Amino acid sequence: MSDSLIAVFSRSFGMRLAIGLLVFATLTGLDVGRRAEVNPAAQAVWPTAGKTVVDGPLTLIARGHVPMPANTPAAHASSLLAMPASHPSALLAFWFAGTRESAADVQIATSQFDRATQQWSAARFVVNRQAMGDQLGFGVRRLGNPVAWLDSQGKIHLFVVATGLGGWAAARIVHLRQSNNGHDYSAMSFDVVRALPLSWLWNTSFLVRSAPLPLAVGGMVLPVHFELGIKYPVALRFDAGGEFKGMVRISSRKHLLQPTLVMVSESNWLALMRDQRPEGKVGVAQTTNGGKNWIDLPDLALHNPDASVAGLALAPGRMFLANNSSPHARSALDLSSSTDGRAWVLTQSLAHGSGADEYSYPALAWADDSLWVSYTDQRRRIAWQRFSFSPTAR
Is residue 183 in a domain? Predict the structure, then answer.
């Protein structure tokens, strides 16, 4: 075959592939839209329910790095899970770790912050791709982005991105449930429930990143996003036992991903999102009827250098957002506060570097009357900081 014929064939194949991907993305988006009616209005739960949140400035009381598994040089995408007061751990951290992102040896790691010792435990791996593939019945090439949730029976659920052929854009979200009982951290293990049924084409191209929003009825809303050709955010609904109940698209825009959910009130929530475009800002969508319908709002005035954000509302008028504040890099990570979710004020500088330094993929949690932040430090370790509220002087 001549070079000119090869070039023509390559262009033709590339055009057909692009058209195919666009059609697939469009049909998947329509599929999500058709399933919106299965999400009835719901009431969310404040993480500080029944407690008084001090109306004062944040004070840093501890910081450091979560222990890494031995001989593991890379870490990314942590998730924090606050535990009940009866549990020996204040919270658990989950993240993916290995020789590098997308390496064959990447596994899901965990560590617990022990209430008695006030220290993080030695890290251990709890999910690997070989065991996951055996339970799913098909091969898994990569793992990433673990997100944890505690159900009404005290079982931990993990939602993990798993890829086959095609990389991250062709990933599935795999749902796992804790298989052992009790509080024995050293025996913690997980079994696969299933790959979530989110699209008609082998459930591919949906990814998870941010923490779920707990509901008063005992279930939760899990923010995820679609990522193939176009990108858009979706909210998944689960009942108190962790059964998947439905999904609804959050935004009609096609460049937003990795939504984080922030409460304004029990039924009024904001989705704050990563913007893939150059010169992007933090994207916003809102529901005022407990997740039944969403509308797009104007972007925040905060820069977003195509980077993940993490939001958490502790009580009415007490919202926090961790985000990369530089317009073009992930070298600056800050914590801001807001009373309405629209206007944000810098509260704490979490990490600032220069050049190729990276502090990214933050996570927020409320545990033991403290605000906890974790984030990726240089793609090598998971850093954490703990804040308390100081009473306002009068």
Answer: yes
Spatial separation of the C-alpha atoms in residues 328 and 386, rounded to whole Å: 27
Burial of 270 (0-12, 13-18, 19+ CB in 10 A): buried
Provide the CB-side half-sphere exposure for 27 (13 A, CA). Answer: 11
Q: What is the pLDDT of residues 70-91, one digit of tens each?
A: 999 999 999 999 999 999 999 9
d(CA 182, CA 109): 19
Residue 7 in domain: no
Instruction: Residue 147: name the closest of 190, 195, 95, 104 by CA.
Output: 95
Does residue 155 sit within a domain?
Answer: yes
Type and span of the H or E element at 120: strand 119-120
Q: What is the CATH number of the domain that holds 300?
A: 2.120.10.10
What would the pLDDT profile of 143-158 be if each residue is shown by its tens digit? 999 999 999 999 999 9
CA geometry: angle 229, 207, 103, nearest 5 deg:
95
Burial (CB count <10 Å: 0-12, 13-18, 19+), residue 393: exposed
Distance CA 326, CA 357 (A): 12
Q: How many domains does the chain have?
A: 1
Furthest-apart CA atoms within the chain: distance in Å: 84
Residues facing residue 322 across a β-bridge: 310, 335
For 155-203, write each residue's pLDDT tens digit. Answer: 999 999 998 776 777 789 999 999 987 778 888 999 999 999 998 766 6
Residue 208 lies in a domain: yes
Range of the domain at 103: 35-389
Residue 83 near residue 89, CB atoms below 8 Å: yes
Tokens describing residue 148: 């944890």
Q: Rounded to the nearest 10 degrees, how much is the dihedral formed by the CA atoms of 227, 109, 176, 27? A: 0
Distance CA 227, CA 255 (A): 9
